[in-house]
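Q: What structure does this chain adopt?
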Amino acid sequence: MSSNSPIPIKLLKSTLGANVKITLPASKSISNRALIINALCQSAGEVENLSSARDTQTMLRLLSSEVETLDVLDAGTTMRFLVAYITATHQQKILTGTDRMQQRPIGILVDAMLELGADITYLNKAGYPPIQINGFKQKTNEIKIRGDVSSQYISALLMIAPSLDEGLKLTLEGHVGSRPYIEMTLKIMQQFGIQYSWNDNMIAINPQEYIQTPFRAEGDWSGASYWYSFVALSDNGSVLLDGMTEESLQGDQAIAEIMESLGVHTTYSEEGALLTKIDHQSTYSYDFAHSPDLAQTIAVVCAVKGIHAIYTGLESLKIKETDRVLALQTELAKFGATLKEEEDTWTLVPSENLPAKVDIHTYEDHRMAMAFAPLCLVMDVSFDDASVVNKSYPSFWEDVKNSVS
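A:
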């Protein structure tokens, strides 16, 4: 469940304002990684420009908590990173979360930790939170883990690797999904003094000490994606994303390249990234394996703009805050679009006649709300819970209010 009571919100059909300038929140992906790494330093420093997202604020609070039971709420990243961190730092804690969190699998990561030498027990259903962490004594430094389920499992293991007595040689089995997130983790570790090697499918990290260093989190490219959607669905709008640069640790910067085909051009300057409306393709295909958080945004854009699309790499969406594939299918159908699944391929057939209004169910999922919000440029749109955006972009609705008229 959301930590807030549901707050309905309705956006009347609007137009995108002139000279829209958006200052995005800091990346929660970067913030959460930096917080774990900073906590593993012998003398912790300060991470600047931390994300205001509830996930990050939850991580910050729990890292300094002395209570036995840590409630991560609905923060999947926080749960996964803390499983490894709490174990490696020899703490005895219980990790739990919302009802939905207790339905999200953790078994692959726990199995890896058990193989490393952790003592972890499930308190309810095997393979799922809540779990109890009882102790740790490293008994191997070579383990294997599937690469196609969640990069957060891999990142959790990598971040604790330097602090392990024997280090870690981690072999990624099969196809590696969300690779940019693994690369992000390693690059942040590198900024804190860690050396590593990644050859073929094995990442090797020797025992070494993190070096406390000043660190500033950059703006969130996942959050930027919604403003690309606003420009794409506008008549002839533009948006300046304040301070966003072409050099980024985040894989979701791929939104800039994707949207070149879907009707938005990006120009970088000292001010930031300027998004402007351009012509779009009538058909499109994309593999979301490395940028799954962009899928909902792109699906809505294609559905509204009449773009027939073929998507792959959506498998991981089924274990997110909700089953995002099913949620997309249900909500897109409300305005005449379909997302058909056949084995590992999804075909989007866009809407032919858009209705005057639509009611969108958010499924307690921040990205469902934000991905569908740009519909307000073509119809009235209502959401059953506005508070879900607090998970990653608390100021989202305020930014929307200030950008449309």
